């Protein structure tokens, strides 16, 4: 592994790859600082452009966008009380009060350093844990991979959706979308409407870009707000917004604890940066000697939130690269990026394609360090991005969405498909339906169907031998538990309502 890491370092520091990383960092910071946009959308917009890039440069750029966009959301959260991404919602609670006290520079400094340490820690875990877990993935045959896909889907329903019913509806709709096209084993045409463009199924990229990017553009068009006012910022004139040594010592234990929690949360499919940020914040408040300071401008609260959400980045790629299960919606986009270049998650990524995988992991370190310097030097300038009027931003998103959808297959049909899914995403947002389950259903649906068909073929239609395989039994228990938890919560809620009445 050491030789592969050294080779990866040489590859990452190639000029073209470094340029891709720096572009990804700057683009990610801008996307993160723009309120209402997301890391998922940032990655989705540029995945099509990686199709004709060197795989290493393309994937390194996507990793840089992921890291920087999660941190970038804290800039607008701290300075204008508007989180750039859902990962930075908790950061508003203490970041903006500090800005109101004229300490916006201190808040930005703490956020930048905490985000960097959280990202570096999760990248280290990715480097150390992923290869070993990849060896374990060799024990997964078709039955295990089928139940693993189902397991990921059921966990998403439990953790992402406030309403289990809504989650189930969207999940089954996603599976319906995933089943479009010619069946791989029987050759049956399904939901193609006699259109040759649907014979291979619905392409992943137009669907993702439509659901995340185009739907957001429609919401911005609908929004009556012109721009966000940042005229009342109070920032001291310093070149670097580094925190003081005392502040760093005060927050360091919280940063390390939140980095551990965030990495673990990232490994769990479907939890995401927002939930990780909240868990870390609550833990920091619970263990603090001065919990009354939280919500009034506590630098420990900022450190907990930002290190926790950035630690998710590396953690979420661990199950993706080793088992093919996306940790969250952004890593689901990464799965699309891998598939574009013909890469399949699992042991092969760390053996046959190690010359691509290890540079990707090493680039997580480089992009986090680059993010720190760019953030400390340019935070005051990136904040001006939030002044872009909505009537200017929304056409830009539409243009990028059209280009991204067309670029992969040079098909106008994909553009119409993107607009169709954009409308669906807009309607889903309107009625508070979660989008992540439909994305994961599209990504994992084909995998689940194919592995089930292989399983039935191997055992000649007899499903009973599956229950003699230990890994399958464990996954079945997890699936049952993931359904039991929300159902039990609903039953308890109804009982408490009845008893109250």
Helix percentage? over 70%
Number of domains: 1
How far apart lie the N and C ends?
63 Å
Give the overall shape, derived from the CA principal axes: globular
Mean of all residue-level pLDDT scores = 79
Could you state the order of secondary-structure elements as H and E? HHHHHHHHEEHHHHHHHHHHH
Class computed from helices, strands and strand pairing: mainly alpha
Instruction: Give the low-confidence spans.
Output: 226-235
How are the strands ordered across the major sheet?
Answer: 1-2
Instruction: List the total number of helices.
Output: 19
Total strands: the figure is 2
Task: Explain what the structure shows.
There is one protein chain. The protein is an all-alpha fold. It has one domain (2-500). It is built from 19 helices and 2 strands. It has a two-stranded antiparallel ribbon with strand order 1-2. Strand 1 and strand 2 form a beta hairpin. Helix 4 (55-80) packs antiparallel against helix 12 and helix 9 (204-222) packs across helix 17 (412-430). The longest helix has 33 residues, at 104-136. The radius of gyration is 22 Å and the shape is globular. The model is unreliable at 226-235 (pLDDT under 50).
A few lines on this structure:
This protein has 501 residues and is mainly alpha-helical. Helix content is 73%, strand content 1%.
Keywords:
501 residues, mainly alpha, two-stranded antiparallel ribbon, 2 strands, 73% helix, globular
What's the helix and strand layout?
Layout (H helix, E strand, L loop, with lengths): L1 H11 L2 H19 L5 H8 L8 H26 L8 H12 L3 H33 L5 H19 L3 H15 L2 E2 L6 E2 L13 H19 L22 H23 L4 H16 L11 H25 L5 H12 L6 H4 L3 H29 L7 H20 L2 H19 L5 H23 L11 H31 L1
Antiparallel strand pairs: 1-2
Helix pairs in contact: 1-15, 2-3, 2-4, 2-15, 3-4, 3-9, 3-13, 4-5, 4-6, 4-12, 4-13, 4-15, 5-6, 5-12, 6-10, 6-12, 6-15, 7-8, 7-18, 7-19, 8-18, 9-16, 9-17, 10-11, 10-12, 11-12, 12-13, 13-18, 16-17
């Amino acid at each position: 592994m050491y030789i592969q890491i050294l080779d990866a370092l040489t590859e990452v520091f190639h000029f073209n790859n470094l340029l891709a990383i720096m572009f990804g960092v700057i683009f990610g910071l801008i996307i993160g600082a723009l309120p209402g946009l997301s890391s998922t959308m940032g990655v989705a917009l540029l995945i099509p452009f990686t199709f004709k890039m060197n795989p290493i440069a393309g994937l390194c750029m996507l990793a840089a966008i992921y890291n920087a966009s999660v941190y970038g959301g804290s800039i607008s959260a701290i300075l204008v009380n508007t989180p750039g991404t859902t990962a930075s919602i908790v950061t508003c609670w203490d970041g903006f009060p500090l800005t109101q006290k004229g300490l916006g520079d201190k808040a930005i400094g703490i956020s930048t350093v905490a985000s960097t340490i959280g990202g570096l820690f999760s990248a280290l875990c990715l480097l150390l844990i992923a290869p070993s877990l990849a060896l374990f993935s060799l024990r997964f045959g078709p039955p295990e991979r089928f139940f693993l896909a189902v397991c990921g889907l059921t966990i998403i329903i439990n953790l992402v959706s406030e309403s289990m019913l809504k989650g189930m509806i969207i999940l089954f709709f996603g599976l319906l979308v995933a089943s479009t096209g010619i069946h791989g084993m029987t050759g049956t045409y399904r939901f193609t409407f006699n259109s040759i463009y649907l014979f291979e199924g619905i392409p992943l990229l137009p669907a993702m870009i439509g659901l995340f990017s185009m739907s957001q553009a429609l919401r911005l068009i609908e929004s009556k707000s012109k721009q966000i006012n940042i005229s009342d910022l109070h920032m001291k004139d310093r070149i670097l917004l580094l925190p003081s040594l005392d502040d760093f010592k005060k927050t360091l234990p919280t940063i390390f604890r939140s980095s551990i929690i965030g990495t673990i949360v990232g490994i769990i499919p479907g939890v995401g940066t927002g939930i990780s940020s909240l868990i870390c914040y609550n833990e920091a408040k619970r263990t603090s000697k001065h919990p009354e300071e939280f919500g009034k401008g506590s630098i420990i609260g900022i450190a907990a939130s930002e290190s926790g959400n950035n630690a998710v980045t590396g953690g979420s790629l661990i199950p993706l690269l080793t088992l093919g299960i996306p940790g969250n919606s952004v890593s689901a986009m990464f799965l699309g990026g891998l598939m574009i270049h013909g890469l399949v998650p699992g042991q092969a990524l760390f053996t046959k394609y190690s010359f691509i995988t290890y540079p990707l992991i090493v680039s997580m370190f480089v992009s986090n360090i680059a993010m720190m310097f760019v953030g400390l030097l340019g935070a005051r300038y990136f904040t001006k991005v939030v002044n872009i009027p909505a009537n200017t931003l929304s056409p830009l998103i539409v243009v990028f969405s059209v280009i991204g959808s067309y670029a992969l297959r040079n098909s106008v049909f994909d553009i119409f498909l993107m607009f169709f899914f954009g409308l669906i995403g807009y309607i889903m947002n309107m009625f508070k339906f979660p989008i992540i389950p439909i994305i994961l259903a599209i990504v994992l649906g084909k995998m689940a169907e194919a592995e089930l068909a292989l399983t039935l073929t191997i055992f000649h239609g007899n499903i009973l031998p599956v229950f003699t395989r230990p890994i399958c039994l464990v996954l079945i228990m997890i699936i049952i538990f993931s359904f039991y938890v929300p159902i039990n919560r609903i039953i308890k809620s109804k009982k408490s309502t009845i008893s109250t009445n």
